[in-house]
Amino acid sequence: MRNSEIAISIKNLTKFYGKFQALDNVCFEVKRGDFFAFLGPNGAGKTTTINVITGLSNYQSGDVKIFGFDTTREYTQTRSLVGLCAQEFNFDPFLTIHQLLVYQAGYFGITPWIASRRADELLDRFQLMEKRNSKHRALSGGMKKRLLLCRALIHDPEILILDEPTAGCDLELKFLIWDYLAQLNKEGKTVFLTTHYMEEAEKLCKTIGIINRGHIVRIGDKKEVLQDKSLEDVFIEVTGQE
Ligand SMILES: Nc1ncnc2c1ncn2[C@@H]1O[C@H](COP(=O)(O)OP(=O)(O)OP(=O)(O)O)[C@@H](O)[C@H]1O
Ligand SMILES: [Mg+2]
Questions:
Q1: FRET pair for 57, CA 20 to 30 Å: which of 130, 161, 214, 225?
Q2: Pocket lining: 40 vs ligand 1, CB cutoff 6 Å
Q3: What pLDDT digit, counting tens, does each position of 43-71 carry?
Q4: 133 burial class (0-12, 13-18, 19+ CB within 10 angstroms)?
Q5: Is ligand 1 within 6 A of the CB of residue 185?
Q6: CATH number for domain 6-239, candidates 3.40.50.300, 3.40.50.2300, 3.40.1190.10, 3.30.565.10
């Protein structure tokens, strides 16, 4: 890794959808090993930022790096360093969930035999073994969420990016996911998470970034940010989504 201390670096990022400006001069860094919560109301620009970081979306100007590698020019390096658990389901409808994980691993050069073993470990961890040979449409909403997590983790990425990973999950599943994310972070993985559940951000993260209408409002240590009274308006919008 070219820069081993800064996992994600975003400088002066501007993104338009047609004439609509979704991101305006966004700048922030996420340190290696951090647990970073990216908060903001609906439409603030969280998923757009994630799409840029993961190379799913283009942008008009700025500089976006993963461990020092440029996400546009050096995308082969950056893709394998990141695992994405997207906000929406986007699974291949023709594959069983086990095949789907093995195929995903193939994009990162993992041999089918190793991928199959790893897929089974993840399916087991997220209690999906009994659906191993089913297609994703046979899964419940919460099960699909868990499958998204398995897919994000299949190539053992350094950075895990999770776009509302526990939205719509029951309490038991939420706690299972929280425990696993905390464990991964303890083992050294960098976690970048968006959520509308303040409890989730408070419990898990070390650093909080807040975005509103495409602008970064605040980045800082969790305690400092949560105590900052000037952010109440944004937090009211955020918690109002629950
Ligand atoms: N493909 C697109 N085409 C046009 N506008 C888009 C597109 N994707 C997002 N937008 C707009 O960009 C803005 C930011 O959207 P984004 O999905 O990044 O918000 P978000 O912070 O993830 O919100 P949420 O909490 O609802 O998931 C919104 O105004 C949205 O309507
Ligand atoms: Mg979103």
A1: 225
A2: yes
A3: 999 999 999 999 999 999 999 999 999 99
A4: exposed
A5: no
A6: 3.40.50.300
